[in-house]
C-alpha cells in the first residue's frame, strides 16, 4: 500500500513516501479500514519533532530541535518505535475484520477514536495509547484499529469533512467537560482560528455558554462563521480594556506562551483555566497569589473518557457542530500540508487523502 512513514524524530525530512509498504491485517477484535481521508493535528507535528520532551522549552516550530530527550519525546512521556505511520483522524470504509470483530461492520463508513484503550480497564489513563503514536495510524491507504475504536457515522459530510472532527473536537469537548462549562459561563478561547480553537467555540456555544474568540484579525471573518459572541485580536495589549464589561469565567487554552499570565489575570474570582496545548511555548510565569487569592481552578486535559468520542459523533449526526475544512492535500504531499499547518496558512483543519 501507499504510506507516509516517519523514520525518527526531527524535521520534515524524517518522512519517507512508500508505494509498496506492507498492508496491515486485522488481529482479534480489530478492523481493517480503507482510508478515505485523515486529519492532520498538532500531535503529529509535536511527536515528529520531539517537542513533548522536557528537554525542549520553545514554542512549537515544526522543525528539528537541538536536543530531544530520548526517554520522553512523545505525548505520554515515553519513546515510540520507528518506523511509524502517524495520523489519528482516519475516516474510511471497513473492508475486513479480525477474529471476534463484528462482521456487520464490513462496508460501513467509520470514524476512528484516537485514544487506544485497555478494554479491560477503559478508564485507566495510564494504559492509554494514541493512534498514530503507539500504533500505526491513518497516513496510509489502509489502517487497523480495535473495533471499539471506531464509530459508524450517519452523515452526508464527505470523508475529508469528517476527518476534521475526531482529534480536535474530542480534545475540545474533554477540556470543556473538565472545566464544567455550562450556560452560565463566559468562555475565552485563544487561538480560535485553529482546529481545536474552532471546536472550542462551537462546543462551548453548544453548551449555551457565551464565547469570546481570540484570533489574528486577518482570520476574523472565518472565525465569525463559528458563531462566537465577540471576537478580539490575537493578543490585545490591554486585554481587560478590550473585554469591556465581559466577565470571563473560563479560559480554554491551547496556546500558552508569553501572553499566558494576561489570560490568567482576567479570570473572575472562582474562574477556571483548562489547557490541552502550548503551541506558543510551554514555559510560563505564574504569580501564585493570583491563583490562590482569586480561588482559581486549573485543569489539564489530554486523555478523554470513551464516551466523549461517541458524544462528538452524535453531535455530528444531529448537525449540532460543523466541520471547518481549510484545505485538502494528497497524502504524498504530507510534508507540504504539515508545513502549511505549522505556518498557520489556513483557518481550520487540514486533511490528507491517499
UniProtKB/TrEMBL annotation:
UniProt keywords (A-Z) are: NADP, Oxidoreductase
Has UniProt tagged this entry with the keyword NADP? Answer: yes
Write down the Pfam families for this protein, in alphabetical order. ADH_N, ADH_zinc_N
Task: Note the InterPro entries from the entry.
Answer: ADH-like_C, ADH-like_N, ER, GroES-like_sf, NAD(P)-bd_dom_sf, Quin_OxRdtase/zeta-crystal_CS
Q: Which domain of life is it from?
A: Bacteria
Q: SUPFAM superfamilies under this entry?
A: GroES-like, NAD(P)-binding Rossmann-fold domains
Which PROSITE patterns does the record associate with it? QOR_ZETA_CRYSTAL
Q: Where is the Enoyl reductase (ER) domain?
A: 10-352
Recorded protein name is: Alcohol dehydrogenase family protein
Q: Which organism is it from?
A: Albidovulum salinarum
Taxonomic lineage from the root: Bacteria, Pseudomonadati, Pseudomonadota, Alphaproteobacteria, Rhodobacterales
Amino acid at each position: 500500500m501507499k504510506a507516509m512513514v516517519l523514520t525518527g524524530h526531527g524535521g520534515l525530512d524524517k518522512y519517507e513516501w512508500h508505494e509498496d509498504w506492507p498492508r496491515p491485517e486485522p488481529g482479534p477484535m480489530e478492523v481493517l479500514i480503507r482510508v478515505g481521508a485523515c486529519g492532520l493535528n498538532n500531535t503529529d507535528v509535536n511527536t515528529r519533532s520531539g517537542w513533548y520532551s522536557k528537554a525542549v522549552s520553545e514554542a512549537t516550530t515544526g522543525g528539528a530541535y537541538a536536543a530531544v530527550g530520548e526517554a520522553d519525546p512523545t505525548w505520554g512521556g515515553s519513546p515510540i518505535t520507528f518506523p511509524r505511520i502517524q495520523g489519528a483522524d482516519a475516516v474510511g470504509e471497513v473492508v475486513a475484520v479480525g477474529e471476534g470483530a463484528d462482521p456487520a461492520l464490513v462496508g460501513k463508513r467509520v470514524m476512528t477514536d484516537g485514544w487506544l484503550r485497555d478494554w479491560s480497564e477503559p478508564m485507566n489513563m495510564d494504559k492509554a495509547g494514541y493512534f498514530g503514536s503507539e500504533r500505526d495510524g491513518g497516513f496510509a491507504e489502509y489502517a487497523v484499529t480495535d473495533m471499539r475504536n471506531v464509530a459508524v457515522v450517519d452523515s452526508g459530510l464527505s470523508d475529508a469533512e469528517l476527518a476534521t472532527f475526531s482529534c480536535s473536537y474530542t480534545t475540545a469537548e474533554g477540556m470543556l467537560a473538565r472545566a464544567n462549562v455550562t450556560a452560565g459561563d463566559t468562555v475565552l478561547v485563544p487561538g480560535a482560528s485553529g482546529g481545536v480553537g474552532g471546536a472550542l467555540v462551537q462546543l462551548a456555544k453548544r453548551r449555551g455558554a457565551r464565547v469570546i474568540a481570540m484570533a489574528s484579525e486577518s482570520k476574523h471573518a472565518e472565525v465569525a462563521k463559528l458563531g462566537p459572541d465577540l471576537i478580539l485580536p490575537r493578543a490585545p495589549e490591554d486585554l481587560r480594556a478590550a473585554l469591556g464589561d465581559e466577565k470571563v469565567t473560563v479560559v480554554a487554552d491551547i496556546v500558552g506562551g508569553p501572553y499566558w499570565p494576561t489570560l490568567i489575570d482576567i479570570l473572575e474570582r472562582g474562574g477556571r483555566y483548562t489547557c490541552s496545548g502550548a503551541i506558543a511555548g510551554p514555559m510560563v510565569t505564574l504569580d501564585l497569589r493570583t491563583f490562590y487569592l482569586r480561588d482559581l481552578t486549573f485543569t489539564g486535559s489530554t486523555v478523554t473518557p470513551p464516551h466523549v468520542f461517541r458524544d462528538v459523533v452524535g453531535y455530528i449526526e444531529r448537525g449540532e457542530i460543523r466541520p471547518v475544512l481549510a484545505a485538502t492535500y494528497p497524502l504524498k504531499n504530507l510534508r507540504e500540508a504539515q508545513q502549511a499547518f505549522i505556518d498557520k496558512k489556513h483557518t481550520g483543519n487540514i486533511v490528507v487523502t491517499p
